[in-house]
Each structure stands twice: as C-alpha cells, then as structure tokens.
C-alpha cells in the first residue's frame, strides 16, 4: 500500500503568517495552486490560506453580503468575523486555522477519503508540526496512473490460476452468487455464463474478472434471471 511519502510533492510552498493578502494571492496565482500552508517564525504550520479564503474581498467588491433578515439573525461575532475576512490585509486574519494534515505514513486511501469528505484539494504532510510535503488530488491521480503498467514479460499466468483467483474474489463478495461451473477460462479469456439479477451485478462480475492479472478479455454470455423466478 502506498503512503503519503510515496506520492507527495516535496517542494513545499509556504507563506508567512505576517504576509499580506495580496502577497498570498500572488503566490497562489504564480504557482497555479489552490491553497498554501501558513507558517510561524519557527516554520510550524498554523493555518492554510486557500482560494476560498480570498473569495470574498472588499478590494474586488465580492465581500459577503447577507440579506437584511439573515443579518438580523446572525451573531455579532459572525458578522465581525466576516468583516475581518473581507477587509484585513494580513494572512493570519483570513487563513483557516483548523488545519487538516497527514503524516508521511498516512495511507493513500485515507488521504483520498480526507480530501473527499472535507471537500478540499490538498493537504499538508507534517513532521513534528513542520511541512515536509503536500498531497493534492493531482498527486493521487498520478499515483493511480503509476499502478497502470504494461503486461509483464514474465510467463503468462495459466488459465487455472486465473479461474481460481476469480472464484476466490467472487466468493468474498456478498453480492456475488456464482456457481464455479459458470466460470471458464481459455487462453486468458474469461467466459461468464451465470444469470444475474441486475445490470449492476452483471457489470460487477465483468469488472471482477477484468481485474484478475493475466486476463486478456472477458466474454459475457450471461442472461438475466427469468421474471417468473423472481415472483
């Protein structure tokens, strides 16, 4: 399993907490990135400033405007916070302080879940509070590409091995009820003869076969379960 250290970008671009908002904006624009870690004088990450943090600004006339009734029910603290976010010239005032981060040993699947569930595009990799890398969605896409390689020049996996691996995979899946007699393999071509309850189940069976190493092609001979058997 790959970890953050295997996919992260090690050239970490950071911004000082006392930098100005225009300086942070220029940094994002120059390097074509969506967010950058904010560090203190000891180079420890204390926040992140992103495109979203700079979206509502007085300089561009995009500061947040609430309807009169929403403004009435909003707390004074929230209104003051919005004002600081849109008017302050210091990065430390507009940055997001609750920093989501990972370590070098964080598994890549966990990072993918973190990015997706929090709707963020990148996350800093920290060691003792200091940035040693950045993992972005682009890094994860490249990691996926790395797993796709040309077929090995080693001896082909025989048909029996392919069939055994496929049957083992299907046995482990709750949705798959396939008789071994309905799976045959000849010259690396998997033939599926079973019946299926839904198009999703049918496609899942094909995908399971396609993912077995050594499979050249999957031939689909499957038929839907007759309606009278479902009654």
Task: Describe the protein.
- By secondary structure, this protein is an alpha/beta fold.
- It folds into two domains: 4-146, CBS-domain (Roll); 159-229, Histidine-containing Protein, Chain: A (2-Layer Sandwich).
- It has nine helices and ten strands.
- 36% of the residues lie in helices and 18% in strands.
- The longest helix has 13 residues, at 159-171.
- The strands form four sheets. It has a three-stranded mixed sheet with strand order 1-2-3.
- It is elongated, with a radius of gyration of 26 Å.
Give the CA-CA distance, first to last residue.
45 Å
The share of residues in extended strands comes to 15-25%
Q: Helix and strand string, N-terminal first?
A: HEHEEHHHHEEHHEEEHEE
Radius of gyration: 26 Å
**Largest sheet descriptor:** 3 strands, mixed
Compile the SSE list and pairings.
Elements: H1 4-7, E1 15-16, H2 21-31, E2 35-39, E3 45-50, H3 68-73, H4 76-87, H5 91-94, H6 108-118, E4 122-127, E5 130-136, H7 137-146, H8 159-171, E6 183-186, E7 189-192, E8 195-196, H9 199-210, E9 217-220, E10 223-224
